[in-house]
Input
Amino acid sequence: MRHRSILLIGGSGFIGTRIASQLAAAGCSVIVPTRRQARARHLLVLPTVQVVEADVFDPATLDALLQRCDAVINLVGVLHSRPGQPWGSAFERAHVELPRRIVQACRRQHVRRVLHMCALGAAPDAPSMYQRSKAAGEQVVLNSGLDATSFRPSVVFGPDDKFLNLFAQLQQLAPAMALGGADARFQPVFVGDVAEAFVQALDERDAFGRVYELVGPHVYTLRELVRLAGVYSGHPRPVLALPDAIARLQAFLLEHLPGGPLMSRDNLDSMKADNVASGRYPLPPHWHPQALEAVAPGYLAPR
Ligand SMILES: NC(=O)c1ccc[n+]([C@@H]2O[C@H](COP(=O)([O-])OP(=O)(O)OC[C@H]3O[C@@H](n4cnc5c(N)ncnc54)[C@H](OP(=O)(O)O)[C@@H]3O)[C@@H](O)[C@H]2O)c1
Output
């Protein structure tokens, strides 16, 4: 590959782990900064991946990391923030401020190739703060003058997801599932396919300045996804759709759970618009995502 030394910011997480392992398999050396070394321990088995404890918001730290790299991938994202205008401060920091600091550091260090993780449905007028702040961060990267590519996945599934696995676990415990946004539509995409899209685009000149949507081959309502998670994990439960007002109350209560929110009113707002391919942006060329039915039973099945 032409780009061989990659700074993978957010590389310790669910999607980052897959990208790190595909980059390592392609012969790249990868630096993964993390706030806590222990969170990225699982990456240490990959021979060309180096994990460093670092504050990626610090310009001098970013400069030092980029000096050893010829491309950067930024995956940092958060699902929850306290409310704020135009969005909460945690969204501002992770989705807008960090991309700004990364492009500034890239300019200083003459690193031109930037791959950025946005999200399907991101738009200045989207229903949720998460999506609006993601759109603002994407604009920072696309308008940077660097060789940037942005990716917009629908919800991502795979062995360590916190999505189908969560629905499966809840159905082991509860006699029924009470669901807000039950009719919201999604086009889930496999984490291995998301990683492949990033790795394929890295050296692809046609990808410079482009936005790609990343979606799987089929569309499902949230209710159908919960039902499938129950069936594949061996504990199918009845799914009850909550009326909007009750769903909001449920989200408010889940927002205040000790140990961090399981779900928030902003997450519920995201579901006001379908999370499916918009047609405004292409899918990556020569990219053939797998169906959920082909992958999810393998990791949700009771052991
Ligand atoms: N999963 C999905 O279904 C999905 C769908 C659409 C878009 N996305 C986007 O894809 C990206 C990755 O998602 P994921 O599911 O892999 O997330 P994840 O497992 O939660 O990983 C998030 C990563 O971001 C880093 N991070 C989070 N907050 C940070 C902060 N304040 N400062 C520095 N680093 C921070 C974490 O690093 P530490 O090691 O420091 O904790 C971690 O490596 C996100 O931008 C997300 O919005 C995800």
